[in-house]
Structure prediction request, 420 residues.
Amino acid sequence: MPASGSPDRGGDLGRCRCWRRRDDGAGRARNPGHSQVTLPRIRRQDGSGGRGVLDLTDFSRRRARAALLAREAGFSAFAFVPGPNFLYLTGLEFHLMERPTVLLLTTEGRVRAIMPELERSRWRNAFPEARTFFWRDCEGYADAFRKLSATLAGPVGVEGMRMRMFEFEALRSHLPHGAVVDAEPALAKLRICKESEEVVALRRAVSISEAALDEQLETARAGDSEVEIVARLKQAMLARGAEGFAFDPIVLSGPKSADPHGTPGNRTVAPGEPLLVDFGASWGGMNADITRTFFCKHVPESSRAIYDTVLAANARGREVVGPGIACDSVDRETTAVLSESPFAEMIRHKTGHGLGLDVHEAPHVMVGNEMPLAAGMVVTIEPGLYRSGDLGVRIEDNVLITEEGAECLTRFPREAQCFG
Prediction:
């Protein structure tokens, strides 16, 4: 089913839209179709007054849903380390470091934890009655893991893609053989459909990102280095209310754009060269993930057909995505536009991935994933073509699956744009 907003028409293919400042009446540049989102402040679990994170009642509901998933998968509990799932279930943000911190959620919905002593106050303020095994640096954490393990009555499901070996081994050493199991297939269901508050936060993250990118097209010039553009882009996002960045922006010029996840450096952009910008703001814990490819001064004829092909593939992906459509089908339809072009050998990656508290999460829009999309899921549509030593082109949008079809949250123009 088509995404909201008409896909790029054939007449737009290959044209270079030169950036011109548009004013919103208050002296701020705006792109056509870009809208601002104003949100209320929402109290964090730890009382810090952050935005976009749900209150205690909602966290309890989330934990109840996670407990049900654990029961259905045959586990006695799930074990989480600091990261998106930990935040999703508690409203607390801890960091992976040398001090192990583990959240245990039983099938009855009971919260247990291993916590460094230095986190006692923050943890107790949020979970005063949770059975918690605190440990001190001078004592070590082995006894805390032993005591926690003794409370378990069966296999424990862990985050196979996030838990480190030393937490895994600390749990495994105190449990029967085979009692610590990768639970990623079950956990993928936990956050895959976004709640209304999460969608609101994601809209804000996208809005901030697009406004910042809009500004950078005005200021970017031939001779700017990649790292200079990164610095300005980050500052622009922060100035518009970003609470952080989904990841360190990827800004690549000229032949470096052929490396899909390259590292920005001191290389300067020259006339006729592509500038690939992959970035996103974080707001309320939710992450935007947007890519556009621009050209300095003009679009070379040698690049035009490649850009047009990626643009057509992006339009096709946004057209077919919708509820009930398998991820595999979306990938095949999108990739077909690329593979049936003269540039098939330049394909390097799948069509997209889920987006939320993590930048890359389920569902993955790729061949072989037969999972049907459902209302509440958010995915990226990001076809790309890359010719080593020459250029790369990627156009990435963030799409919300709805009951009726799909809504493209990103509104930034997709036709070829020039700067400088």
